[in-house]
Design a protein that fits this description.
Layout: E1 3-9, E2 18-20, E3 23-25, E4 38-41, E5 72-75, E6 81-85, E7 91-94, H1 98-112, E8 120-123, E9 138-142, H2 143-153, E10 166-169, E11 183-186, E12 189-198, H3 216-224, E13 228-237, E14 239-241, E15 247-249
Parallel strand pairs: 9-10
Antiparallel strand pairs: 1-2, 1-10, 3-14, 4-8, 5-6, 6-7, 9-13, 11-12, 11-15, 12-13
Length: 250
């Protein structure tokens, strides 16, 4: 039976993953605390009073800014304090305050240097997730597909390149791509798979070294005539999930 190998969320878009021991999934919502902040790279047009999908390139993101992987960040969801290591002395600021946001913007402005397209700004909006699809989905990666991709490339591929929420063991390679439209139970939650994940050059960045050392979208395109790896699901019944929980198809 396929099962959860690991769970992650990404409190600040483009920055470090946060491993989870468990997650409470809510109906038609992303994982709580996932991509609740983004760093605007020059004016984006984002309106906190009417939050909507914006292209990822309007924010700091690995697709354009590989150097972000050189930073190790942690976020305290109770206090709102974000810690950054790798940009000089360890830095901590409260992202819920104007002073904390200003200090963060100043630090990252220095770190980003010539990759700044304008003023950096910490963005958030109540209930909004800065996902790449603008829908309240949870993202999945099939670890067998990642292993098969590594065989095509000729070296192991770190699954964290794909920045998914839920990593699955026990599926055949690429079987996840055929799940669109299928319903399933996962732990105490229920879901329906809704959309394949089309990969961009962000996956070319090694999450440890920050080097662009692989061509994952190109490899997928040459091998399969598409650039899909992973799948999104919408939660249809709330419930808790944790590593080891099985995926049972309806």
């Amino acid at each position: 039976m396929p099962e959860i190998a690991s769970l992650y969320r990404y409190p600040v878009k483009g920055f470090s993953p946060e491993p989870l021991d468990a997650a409470e999934l809510a109906v038609s919502r992303p994982i709580a605390g996932d991509r609740i902040y983004a760093i605007e790279n020059g004016p984006s047009g984002f309106d906190p009073a009417a939050p909507a999908l914006q292209p990822k390139v309007k924010f700091l993101c690995l697709m354009k800014n590989a150097r972000l992987a050189r930073l190790h960040t942690t976020f305290d969801h109770e206090s709102g304090r974000w810690t950054i290591e790798g940009a000089g002395a360890p830095f901590t600021a409260d992202l819920s305050t104007e002073a904390g946001q200003a200090a963060t913007e100043a630090l990252l402005s220095d770190f980003m240097a010539e990759e700044r397209r304008g003023p950096l700004k910490v963005l958030s909006a109540p209930g909004h997730s800065f996902s790449d699809v603008g829908k309240p989905y949870v993202s999945f990666i099939n670890l067998a597909s990642v292993a098969a991709l590594g065989e095509l490339i000729g070296q192991p591929v770190d699954p964290l390149r794909f920045r998914a929420n839920i990593y699955l063991d026990g599926l055949d390679p690429w079987a996840d791509l055929d799940l669109v439209g299928r319903a399933a139970r996962l732990g105490e939650a229920e879901l329906v798979f809704v959309k394949r994940t089309r990969r961009c050059v962000a996956t070319n960045v090694d999450p440890v070294t920050a080097e662009r050392d692989l061509d994952i979208p190109g490899t997928l395109q040459r091998a399969f005539d598409h650039m899909d790896c992973g799948i999104y699901a919408e939660i249809t019944r709330a419930g808790a999930v944790r590593p080891g929980d099985g995926l049972v198809f309806a």
